[in-house]
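Methods: holo model generation. Sequences were used as deposited, without trimming of termini or removal of tags, and paired with ligand SMILES retrieved from the corresponding compound records. Each pair was processed once, and we did not select among multiple samples. The sequence and pyridoxal-5'-phosphate SMILES for this entry were:
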Amino acid sequence: MVDLLDMTAQRAVHYLQGLDRRSVAPTDAAIASLARLDQPLPDQPTDAEAVLALLDGTGSPATVASAGGRYFGFVTGGALPAALAANWLAGAWDQNAFCVTSSPVAAAIEEIALRWVLDVLVLPPECAGAFVTGATMANFTALAAARHGVLERAGWDVEAQGLFGAPPITVVVGAEAHASIYKALGLLGLGRERVVTVPVDGQGRMRVEALPAVSGPTIVCVQAGNVNTGAFDPVQEICAFVHAHDAWVHVDGAFGLWAAAAPARAYLAAGVADADSWATDAHKWLNVPYDSGLAFVRDSDTLRAAMSVGAAYFPQGDKREPFQFTPEASRRMRGVEVWAALLALGRIGLADLVERCCGYAARFAEGLQAGGYHVLNHVGLNQVLLSFGDDATTHKVAAAIQADGTCWCGDTVWQGRAAMRISVSSWATTEEDVERSLGAILRIAAQQRDAV
Ligand SMILES: *Cc1c(COP(=O)(O)O)cnc(C)c1O
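and the model returned the structure below.
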C-alpha cells in the first residue's frame, strides 16, 4: 500500500507540473484513447499499481487542464495546494461526516469552517450552515428552509403534509436567475415555471421598480454574481421592499458572495447580509476540490426543521449534529478543504485571490477593447463577456480558441446574442498566463476576422 500511495502522489505531482506545457482542452487523440478503458469487467483482480498506471496513462491526458492557470470556463477555479493536500489526507481518513459520533474530527472542523466562511462573507454569525455538493444543492437546501419558513408562518407543516392543500407560495425570480434555481424549485415541488419573473437591465440585474406587490407566503430569489456578467441584483433594496411584507429573500451567490471577502469589491455585495438564506460554492472562487458548496440560513431552526431526520439509533444530543442540516446523511467531510484553504490563505490571502482575479478580468477587457472587440458587460468582478461580431463569428472565434489550447473560454448566449465568456477564478492564474492567453485570443480573433 505504501508504494502504491507514494507512486500515486508522484503521478499527481507530475501531472500538475505538466499542465503548463499542454493544451488546456484535451486533444482529440487523448479523448479517443479513453476507449482503452472500455473493456469488459474482468473476472480476475488487477494489481492496484496497474489500475493506477492505466488511469494516469489514459485518464490524465484526457483531462481538461482546469487545475492550471489558463482555464477560464464555467467560473471554475483550480484547487489550492493546501486544499488538495487536505483532500488527500482526508481521503486516507475516510471519515463519515454524518454525525459527531461517526467522526468527531469532521464535526469539529466543519463547524470551524462554517464559522470562518460566515466571517469572510460577512454574513450573520448566527446562521446555520450545511456542506453540500455545490450551489445547485445549496440552492435546494436553502430553498427547502425557505419553503418551511414561509409555510410555517401560514400555519402549515410542509415536511409533514407536503404541498397538497398547502397555502400557495409565490416565488419571485429575476429573468436572469441561474438555471439551478429553477431546478431546485422543481425538486421542491414549487415548480420551475410557476414563478413570477422580474425583468432585468442590460447587466442582468433585477429592476426593483418592477417587483410585484408581495403578500402571503412569498420567496424572492435574488442573485449575487450573474454567471455571465458578474452583476449583482440590488439585494439591499429588494430586502427592504419585500421584508416589509414578511417575504423570504434567498441569495444565489455561487461565486459572487466572495466579493465580500475583498475590501475593494465588497461594495458589490452590499446588503446581501439582509437576506434570509444564501447559497454559495467553495469549489468556484475558494478554489477547493469538487464537490463543495454551502447553504446558509439565518434562522437555524428553520434549516434544521427542513432537513432533520429521526431514527432510534441516530444521536439526539445537544451538540450540532451535521446530518440535521444537510440533505445527505452519510457523506465525505468536504468542510476539511474549506478549512484548509481558509487557514492557508488567511483573510489577506483570500482578499488577494479575489482581487487578483478581478484585476486580470479588467486586463482582459482592456486588451480586447484595445484590439477593437466588444465587451458586453461592465467588468466589475471576474467575468468578461465578449462579442467578436455577429453570432456566427463569435461562435467561430470561441471554438478556435478552445481548439488552439493556449487557454479555454466558454461559449454563451447573453440576452439573445452569442458571446464568449472569460471567467478568471483561479489562484493558479498568473500575469504571464493572462498575457499569453490575451495574445492567443487576439491572434485567433484577428485570423477569423481576416478570414471573413
Ligand atoms: C455555478 C453556479 C450555480 C451552480 O453551481 P454548482 O456548483 O455547479 O451546482 C448556481 N448559481 C450560480 C450563480 C452559479 O454561478
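Residues 75, 134-136, 178, 180, 223, 225, 227, 252, 254-255, 281, 293 surround pyridoxal-5'-phosphate (CB under 6 Å).
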